[in-house]
Amino acid sequence: MALQHQFPKPFRSCLRCSTGADSQYNLSSRAFWTSAIVRTEASVEHSSSNLDIPPLARLLDPNRVATPRLERRLLRETQQQPIGSRRRRAALQSTSNIPFEQLPYQCFQEARNLLLADRQDKLRQIDEERRRIAKVQATPAELCGGEYVKKGRLVRMQKHLEDLKILADINDPVIKKRFEDGQGDMDRPIYRYLADRQWRQQRRLILLQRINQMHIVPDVVPCLDPTAEVRLMFGRRNVHPGDFVESQNSEMPPRLSIQVFDKGERLVSIVVVDPDVPNTETDSFDSRCHFFAVNVPISPSAASVSLARIADGSRTIRPWLPPHAQKGSPYHRLVVFVLEQKDVESLDTEALKRMMGIQAAQFNIRSCMDKIHGKLVGIHLFRTKWDDGMAGVMQRAKIAGADIELKRMKPEKLPYKKKKSERYR
Fold this sequence. Notes:
16% strand
């Protein structure tokens, strides 16, 4: 009440009038609205089928679970993943099933009208740019200053056209909602752009941090600039970069998700390397190849790759070898390389086997990249060490050395000559 006495008297009277019966009329008489006022409330009809749903099914709805405990319970009992973001699922619990683009908010609808007008302008620019590109393509190279100048001009114009496609949809709230809900079509440039930006803001930085911490550069490769996101799953477990994986979980081949952010289908080679194999003869470490496959097709909309399905096919040069580490040795780094093949050409696996003489030990990833002319576009890594199930994994895979324990050699003492006792008298 003390705060109310500080207001001027006319302002208090305006507040009292705004709560009266004619307040609705005063709000409706505002002159800066350009579209019709939405007065109808969205009615939600509860059908008899929704009322017949058991309480447990409503509680474990993939569209409405909003707590980590319920998410784990949903995955454990129904084998289903939650749909969309947690914020979306929490909002669906307290709102009606109104279409997003029909929300009865006046400011929201006005903003959509402005964005729609801007999108129409961008679509007009896209059509104009396409006509310009077609005109340049039909022009002889002599009139453009040569073939090199014409090609460079077409590349710049094509890049500008792709930028206009992104600008036409970048502010659309429906596009952003579908992307946050995981329903975006990766064949469209706008969804590829949003996914690439989201990956570079956090997950790519974490990946580069793990690579620098574990000295993948320069121990394994001289340099790298990943442009594709690689995710690794052993069964139901999503392995983050640098995680320790138990030997029993990594005994079977994993499943990869290789998400590229540029259009078109391409062929890649997948190589898994362990650079921390102890060599007792030379007192150093060697590299060992655990998996090698070529001619694996991927695209922005087809990113999932199961190594178990391609392990027995004609594309495999080295089948899956379970990661293993002997007792007493330090942890082993397992690095997954994704190499994009040149000019989308299939490699001859038989000729590649004869040329490389592929073996598990003494494998050099740098020499492999030079021979297949592969460009490093994606990378992932995990670690393994000796655990209780490692001996059984090595025995089932017929790998020798499970009964050997490595120990560090004590350094040799410096030669010591006992001095004469007369010196200390």
